[in-house]
Amino acid sequence: MKGLWRKLEDIYAASAFAEQGEHDTAREFLKERKSADKQLRKIAAKDQRVRLRAN
Asked: Cα–Cα distance between 28 and 55 in angstroms, integer?
């Protein structure tokens, strides 16, 4: 649930930048978030593979 709230906060923050005419900042904000999510998924997948090997 915490992840969902974090995503919503990021979306609202990006929309606030966009409303003020800072469109590039809003895009970068969401782009960074997407990149971070992708990296976390990679780490989680790798961790899961390591756990399966240990069992």
From this structure: 41
Q: Which residue is listed with tokens 């992708």?
A: 38
Task: Please check whether residue 10 is in contact with residue 32, taking contact to mean a CB–CB distance below 8 angstroms.
Answer: no
Rounded to whole angstroms, how far apart are CA atoms 14 and 18? 6
CA gap 3, 41 in Å, rounded: 13
One-letter identity of residue 8: L
Termini Cα distance of the chain: 29
Rounded CA-CA distance 14/22 in Å is 9
One digit per residue, pLDDT tens: the chain, 55 residues? 677 888 888 888 888 988 999 888 888 888 888 887 787 787 778 777 766 666 5
